[in-house]
Amino acid sequence: MVLAEGDVSLRPVRLRDHREWREVNLRNRDWLRPWEATVPPAPPGRIPTGRPTFRQMVRHLRAEASAGRMLPFAVHYQDRLVGQLTVAGITWGSMCSAHIGYWVDEAVAGRGVTPTAVALTVDHCFRSVGLHRVEICIRPENTPSRRVVEKLGFREEGMRPRYLHIDGAWRDHLVYALTVEEVPDGLLTRWRQTRAGTDTAPEMR
To answer: Which domain holds residue 37?
Structure first.
């Protein structure tokens, strides 16, 4: 499965992405470190878990995808791997919800790669997967990531104190969300209108 719009495309993460993924990730260590999830110290008596290898990460993502709990994508720009986007925590039943996390190469930041990737993914989640709600949780200090969701018209729902372990400590996160009813024409259509300066969607704050 491939999702594409212009120079941006998403496809499932593969084991053969290792070399390219590692090069991009290592080159962006300083850029990504303040926003990446970390593992909290293990409680007494429990063996600490280290950072997984790429192979372990891909196997975990595949297992979660097979179980219907996750959609892991590699993000490409002009046919080059530039990041990763994951739909996780997929919940069915009366909720039909999930959350999205992403990172992108600093070298392509500001070119519309991330909002395009998010718009493609949200439309896929609503139209093909059948989800009703998608949320994105962002550290208040992460201004570039907040600009992404604000450009796309996500609603800010409030703060979750000490929500995730990021960069070595428990960090507060702002919650942004969308439901399928809020984008009847699709989020990608809204994003195209925004880029063209013709967005007529109501302000959602």
So the answer is: 3-196
Lookup: tokens for 108 = 């392509």
CATH number for the domain spanning 72: value is 3.40.630.30
In a domain, 27, yes or no: yes
Count of domains in the chain? 1
Is 201 among the domain residues?
Answer: no
Confirm whether 91 is domain-assigned.
Answer: yes
The whole-number pLDDT of residue 96 equals 98
Nearest to 103 by CA among 68, 72, 135: 72
How far apart CA 64 and CA 57 sit, in angstroms, is 11
Domain membership of residue 204 (yes or no) is no
Q: Which residues of 170-179 are buried (b: 16+ CB within 10 A; e: fewer)?
A: ebebbbbbbe
pLDDT tens sequence across 63-96? 999 999 999 999 999 999 999 999 999 999 999 9
pTM of the entire predicted model: 0.91
